[in-house]
Amino acid sequence: MTLIRRISYSLAAVLPLAMALDPEASELTEAEQKGLDIALEAREKKVGFENFTASQVMVLRNKQGRESRRALRVKVMEIDADGDRSLFVFDEPRDVQGTAFLIHGHKDKADDQWLYLPALKRVKRISSANRSGSFMGSEFAYEDMSPPEVERFSYRYLRDEPCGELTCTVVERFPVDGKSGYSRQVVWQDTDELRLWKVEYFDRKNAHLKTLTIDGYERYLDRYWQASNMNMVNHLTGKSTVLTWTDYQFQTDLVAMEFTQTGLRRVR
Predict the structure, then answer these.
(1) Positive or negative CA dihedral for 128, 181, 189, 37?
(2) E strands within 191-239?
(3) Is 174 helix (H, G, I), strand (E, B) or coil?
(4) Nearby residues of 6 by Cβ (< 8 Å), 6 or more positions away
(5) Is a pLDDT exceeding 50 seen at residue 55?
(6) What's the whole-model pTM score?
(7) 45 SS3 class
(8) Beta strand 112-117 with 100-104: parallel, antiparallel or unpaired?
(9) DSSP string of 52-79?
C-alpha cells in the first residue's frame, strides 16, 4: 500500500472509530495507529478478487466428542466501496437441506443478514441484537460469519511473537457496535503475508469465550491466500466446530441477483 493510500484509508477509518470510543478524542496512540495500519494493510492484500465459490463441510462436536456433519456451498461477491456479499447454502443432512444464509456486508454500519427456512418457505431477517447467537447450532455466531470490516473495530498493537515457523503480529481489536457479543478480540497474523492464524474472543464480561485457529493456506491467482481449515473451540461449553473448505473457484459467473432476498427463495 502506498503512503498516500494508507493515509487516506487511515483518515476514513480513524475518525469514526475514535469518536465512537471517546467523542473528545482526536488522535490515536502509537499502538492504536499501528494496529489500525496492520488491519488496513491486511485488507489491501485481499481486495480485487471479484468473486469466488467454494464447498464447505461443517463438523459440530459436543463436549463428549460426538459429531454431526453438514455440507454446504459458499458464494462470495466483492462489492466496490462496501462490504462483500456472502451466500451459504446447506445441502446435507436432509433436515437442513435448502437452508440458506445471506449476508450483505457493510463497512460503516451493521451488516444485513437473512436466513431462508425452506420448511416454512420464508426469509427471516437476523436482527443486530441476535447476532451473538449460534449460527445453525455451531460455535460460530452469526456475527462471526461476516467479514470483519476494518471500520467496525478500533485497534491496539500488542507485540510481535513467534507462531510456529513464522513470526506473527498480535493485535487487539474492539467492536464499535455495542450489540456485539464480544468485548474484544485478539488476532494473530503472520508478518509476511498478514494471513490470519488465530483469534481469541472475549465475551461482554471479558471472559475468554472462544478460540479460532486457522491453517491449510493455499494461494490462488498468485495473490489471494485462502485457508482450508477453521476450528472454533468454545472454552465455556467444551463444544467445537470445524469448517473444512475445498473447491475454491475464483472469478466465476456469479450474478448479483443470487445475493438478494428473492434469490434466497430460489436457491437449489
Answers:
(1) positive
(2) 196-203, 208-215, 218-220, 224-226, 229-234
(3) strand
(4) 37, 40, 41
(5) yes
(6) 0.88
(7) coil
(8) antiparallel
(9) EEEEEEEEEE-TT--EEEEEEEEEEE--
